[in-house]
Amino acid sequence: MRVILPLAVLVVALFAASLLIGPAAIGLRASLHALVTGEGEAVVLVMREIRLPRALLGLMVGAALGLSGAAMQGYLRNPLAEPGLIGVSPAASLGAVVAMQTGLVAMFAPALPLAALLGAGLSVALLFVLAGPGGGALALILAGVALSALAGALTSLVLSLSPNPFAMMEIVFWLMGSLADRSMLHVWLAAPVMALGVGLLWRTGRGLDALTLGEDAAASLGIPLARLRAQVVLGVAALVGAATAVAGAVGFVGLVVPHLLRPLVGGRPSALLPVSALGGAAVVLAADIATRVIAPDRDLKLGVLTAIVGAPFFFRLIWQMRRGAE
Amino acid sequence: MSLLDLRDLSVTRGAVPVLSRISLAVAAGEFVGLVGPNGAGKTTLLRAALGLVAHEGYASLSALPGMARARQAAFLPQTREVAWPVSVAALVGLGRVPHGRKMQAQDHQAVDHALHRMDLAEFRARNVLELSGGELARALIARVLAQETPLLLADEPVAGLDPAHQIRTMQVFRDLADQGRGVVASVHDLGLAARHCTRLVVLSGGRVVADGAPMQVLDDATLATVFGIRAFRAQSDGPVLMPLSVLP
Amino acid sequence: MLAILFGLMTGTSVLAAPQRVVSVNLCTDQLAMLLADPGQLLSVSYLAADPRASVMVEAAAGRVLNRGGAEEVFLMRPDLVLAGTYTARASVDLLRRLGVAVVELPPANRLADVPAHLRAVGAALGQQARAEALVAEFNAGLEAVRVPQVPSVTAAFYHPNGYTTGAGTLADDILSVTGFINAGATAGVTGGGILPLERLVMVAPELIVTSAPYPGASRSEDILRHPALEVLRAKAAARRMSDADWICGIPHILRAVAGMAAAHKALTP
Question: Which keywords has UniProt assigned to this entry (chain A) (predicted)?
């Protein structure tokens, strides 16, 4: 509670900031008035159709990435497990890109998040097989690097072969992520799939706590490990898939957020889940605001900022592991 | 009343038999020491009894659904791994997982009791990753105690503890047995096993080769054939057994 | 301009007209096809045959198409290469070092560049008379379609990824001669750049010009179906432009000018 409340306040503040900051200079009162009452044509359009979906997606994508990072780390008992770094987000991108380029999305819009879910799901399942719980950091990183590279390369290949001249330019988006110019359509596309993921991961807390003691102890405490694994795989796939389908692959959020918040909740994986969701939302909202403040006319990618902030954390973690091993 | 019932329990890894047709019953009030050389199958026996490895034959616990089994028997694995920097109290509290989703007053009581029994009361707020090896081992034992099950299975619980805590831990297990619960623990230290257990089961090559009162089981012939050692025996407030030398 | 002429003086123009000309840039392709004698132009770039980019697909049909690689061009043994100042710098530099004469043409930024470019390429090809005739025709055509009123109607170009054309561009100049105010330029965009959708919404232009979608799917084109843009379009006049008409400063640009003049007429009673 003492962690959740301040975080919730921070998320609300950042959400409000995301609504109020943008390239079009609109006064504070005018924008809030337009958002709530729907009066004032152009301002309403900006607030309701452009800024609101963007802020909502920042909240949703961030919460999804934070939550799935915490769940994956809890299950693998490895603080380096991060959807973006170990290939889950890139695989989701690949799924989304294939669905777009085959024309599936044009026929059936929900195919976009579902295909991304499929890509993410296959990659999580593969990672769990290659570097199961307690499989060690080395196996996880090796498998993750291979998977990231493969998924990234195939995404680039599919986009390069597209007859559309813009597809090629989108490689950066799919690998770095952005919330620019998204609409409520994307919110509705992602929301149900994310809700499914949250529902699945929300119930894993007790199992993840028990896994703190290792698989045998967790099983002896009555935790059905096969079911727990299925819940984590599907939950992470749904969250990362839906987030990536609408915002591209945003890295490092699932790494930095649980890492920063873990000491505050006494290390317990179950307590880390809701807190990481809030923390992730705060980080992505803040990063998205920064892209608009730093270079409003440049469509700076989200992943650029999260990586600049996140990479040093990654180095620190590895450094700590090395020292721990000595 | 039988707390654990194994009949013709066999485990094979690939084509290699690890356990061969083991039959064993443990009753309330017993502290069974599982002894045997490295590779005898002690760990596999404990895991198979709980249904954590695929096996043939009958194991009363592995037939139970997960949560029901967890309220029947607690298990202390040999590896002392803790993945996250939780507090000692939170670690011990994991023993209450099978008893319901939310921690109730009785759960907190069980945790306090277990901490006290393992001499960890003043450590309760400490981060487990900052504990010494022995302190961590005791915290993990306390977790098993907090589970408050009729039966307790422990894989080498006293390895790595200092003499005082080794004796104390064995005494805790013996007290539990005396209070009507059952304990099965694999133990390498034959002296501790002989002195504190109510019964010893000797495993060798995946078979039970002896089963009975400690000093009768650990006779010269068994020590020679199973362990390849000879030992000194005495009585001083209970049985004393001290391994002396390796037989040629 | 001076630099080009200077280049011509020291290069090929003093000698006889070049007989093996290779063009590696879409705009020089089309200028050369308008000006060259039959057989004089050996090869044009592959874009000249792409209907999405070129207005002279038929003229390009049957010609040798190149992709502008130095090796490929050199093996054609050209006596003159026509290139754009921004196309394939490395290839152009390499060709120069190999002793091939290269004439470079900057992109057209305003309608007045069209006669200048016609003359420059005409001079390079030794077709000055043909160039003058086309210049006269172009100037007359422009006078015929231009809208004389002071610009008053706001228009905005909106392309995939929120890209717009602002001040100092050919498209901007076309708007100004057809009675429009370029909303992109008003919003502070110079050259090509991104106009955030919410700024476009706040400007609320009376005409929105978007490019026709390309085949295949792309996320970049999603923005052209954004609900906020749909609302703007419902209120404003909308026009789909054919990219090919707008790309190069060649006489065909008059088609784009005429189209915008017609749009202006429709918007003003």
Answer: Cell membrane, Membrane, Transmembrane, Transmembrane helix, Transport
Rounded Cα–Cα distance for residues A127 and A88 (Å): 9
Give the integer Cα–Cα distance in Å for B48 and B11.
8
pTM of the model: 0.86
Pair C253, C245: CB distance under 8 Å: yes
- CB distance A223–B66 less than 8 Å? yes
Contact predicate C249/C27, CB 8 Å = yes
| Alpha carbons B210 and A115: distance in angstroms, whole number | 60
Residue C14 has pLDDT above 50, yes or no: no
Interchain contact, B50 vs A217, CB within 8 Å: no
Average pLDDT over residues A73-94: 89
Tens digit of each residue's pLDDT (9 = 90 or more) over C144-167: 999 888 888 999 999 888 889 999
* Angle value at C-alpha A137, between A132 and A142, nearest 5 degrees: 85
Q: Is C61 on the interface with A (CB under 8 A)?
A: no
Which CATH number fits the domain C153-267, given the four candidates 3.40.50.2000, 3.40.50.620, 3.90.25.10, 3.40.50.1980? 3.40.50.1980
The amino acid at residue C247 is I
The number of C-beta contacts closer than 8 angstroms across A and C is: 94
Label residue B81 by pLDDT band (50, 70, 90): confident
Closest CA to A96 of A237, A254, A252: A237
Please report which confidence band the pLDDT of residue B166 belongs to, taking 50, 70 and 90 as the band edges.
very high
The tokens for C223 are: 């923005």
Of A206, A212, A222, which has the smallest distance from its Cβ to B86's Cβ?
A: A212
Going across the sheet that includes B182-186, the strands are B73-76, B151-155, B182-186, B31-35, B199-204, B207-212
- Asked whether the predicted pLDDT for residue A52 surpasses 60, the reply is yes
* In the predicted structure, residue A298 carries a pLDDT above the cut 80: no
| pLDDT, tens only, B195-223 | 999 999 999 999 999 999 999 999 999 99
Architecture of A4-325 per CATH? Orthogonal Bundle (1.10)
- What was the pLDDT predicted at C1? 43
Quote the mean pLDDT of chain A.
89
State the CATH class of domain C2-142.
Answer: alpha beta
Out of A50, A165, A185, closest to residue C201 by CB? A50
CATH class of B2-246: alpha beta
Chain A contact set for B140 (CB, 8 A): 213
C24 and C82 Cβ atoms separated by less than 8 Å:
yes
- Is pLDDT above 50 for C11? no
